[in-house]
Design a protein that fits this description.
single chain, alpha+beta, endopeptidase fold (from Nostoc punctiforme), 6-stranded antiparallel beta sheet, two-stranded antiparallel ribbon, 8 strands, 23% strand, signal, Cell wall-associated NlpC family hydrolase, NLP_P60_dom, hydrolase activity
Length: 154
């Protein structure tokens, strides 16, 4: 084999190694994306954890602290606030909700002030006054009239 061919083969090997070794997108794509059931099951682990304004750990959660922590435990980052989470993902109509979708509500003067995770069958899991709980999204006494929309981030 000629010296030129050996040099070209060596160069090709180095280039192929570099392409494989230095692909951050490929490396991050190898991390499995969470499933709806893994997100819902993760969220259910925190049922009963108390509500703490600004809380973002199992010692106490506010609404967006709960959703961001739950998704993070499954390998997916979400922004910290309900308003910023509302800017992510694809809008989904209420009739097309699927488990794992984020559901948003207006509970204060802000356009979006509360977030939870839809778990199916008209229910969502969230952290509010009594802590992490499962609630009917169409509760006529509170949540139904405050519903703003949903985003699919999975």
């Amino acid at each position: 084999m000629s010296t030129l061919k050996k040099s070209l083969l060596s160069l090709l090997a180095v280039v192929m190694f570099a392409v494989i070794a230095f692909q951050p997108e490929a490396a991050s794509a190898a991390v499995k994306k969470p499933t709806a059931s893994s997100i819902v099951n993760q969220g259910k682990k925190y049922l009963g954890v108390r509500y703490v304004y600004g809380g973002a750990t199992p010692k106490g959660f506010d609404c967006s602290g709960f959703t961001s922590y739950t998704f993070k435990q499954q390998g997916m980052a979400l922004p910290r606030t309900a308003a910023d989470q509302y800017k992510k993902g694809k809008s989904v109509s209420k009739k097309d909700l699927k488990a794992g979708d984020l559901v948003f509500f207006k509970t204060s003067s802000k356009p979006v002030s509360h977030v939870g995770i839809y778990i199916g069958s008209g229910k969502f899991i969230h952290s509010a006054g009594k802590g992490v709980a499962i609630t009917n999204i169409n509760d006529p006494y509170y949540w139904k009239s405050r519903y703003v929309g949903a985003k699919r981030v999975l």
